[in-house]
Amino acid sequence: MPTRSLNYCRLKFAARGAAFFAVFLLACATFSPRSGAQKFSWNLDGVLKQLDEESKGFQSLTAAIDRTKVTVVVNDKSTESGEIWVRRDDKMRIDFDKPDKRTIMRNGNTLDVYTPKISRVEEYDLGKHRALVDQFLLLGFGTSGSNLEKSYLVTFLGEEAIDGRRTVKLELTPKSEDVRNQVSKIHIWIDIATWLPDQQQFFETGSGDYLLIHYSNVVKNVRIGDDQFKPNWPKNTSRIKPTN
User: Fold this and answer.
1) Can you tell me whether residue 230 is helix, strand or coil?
2) Radius of gyration, alpha carbons of the chain
3) What is the DSSP letter of 61?
4) Of 206, 200, 199, 143, which Cα lies nearest the Cα of 180?
5) Sign of the dihedral defined by the CA atoms of residues 77, 210, 111, 226, in that order
6) Are the beta carbons of 226 and 66 closer than 8 angstroms?
7) Most exposed: 14, 48, 126, 129, by fewest CB within 10 Å?
8) Would you give the distance in Å from CA 232 to the centre of its chain?
9) Per-residue pLDDT for 23 more than 60?
């Protein structure tokens, strides 16, 4: 091949190589997480639709739980820590072990609160209040977006990082006047990796006091046997049924 033709081919190949390399760099800049490319931004409609989809596959969860009651006027905080188990078939158990042992167990229409320190279990029949109780006990655990909209005015408050996890934050204002007489609003942070609550905040009406519930070590759709929800209290346990 003549020298002139050889040089021309080399230049043409180099040009193609440079063009390919430029496209490769552009692709890296577009798709590499280090490029500073913008993440997908959620909005209310997108969150509610995603919750609709995620609710179809929810079966159960286990997690560590921290429950903090804050009394604003005196700036008092008290925290209980323990574990929670939730199953889709209206079963829930919370075992608090700090600072004192206490168990809250829900089985359908029955709610038990067991305090071993005084060997007593309070037995509640949820009855006609079941739908109301579900709004709080199971809020976010497989709740669909459409069900949220039935019970609350839902406001999207943006995205926040909690313990390094990306969450979307919603404000829920109860539509029911009876509920609003107790709770003025609820903030809920939903982890977009699991679409389960990372944190919930319930604001009491009038006082400004609130309850903050934080979840960690969440495991979704783990098998939880029926024995976990059996009220096997010691024989010497006294039972009372407070008036609802």
Assistant:
1) coil
2) 26
3) E
4) 206
5) negative
6) no
7) 14
8) 29
9) no
CA distances in angstroms from 168 to 114, 163, 208, listed in the order given: 34, 13, 23
What pLDDT, on the 0 to 100 scale, is given for residue 95? 97
Which candidate, 27, 64, 26, places its Cα nearest to that of 163? 64
Q: Which residues pair with 239 in a beta bridge?
A: 121
Q: How far apart, in whole angstroms, are the C-alpha atoms of residue 22 and residue 176? A: 60
Of 175, 177, 173, 169, the closest CA to residue 185 belongs to 173
Select from 219, 111, 218, 222 the least CA-distant residue to 162. 218
| Residue 93: other Cβ atoms inside 10 A | 22
pLDDT tens digit sequence for 73-106: 888 999 999 999 999 988 999 999 999 999 999 9
Beta strand extents in 47-195 (DSSP E only)? 60-71, 76-87, 91-98, 102-107, 110-115, 120-125, 152-162, 165-174, 183-191
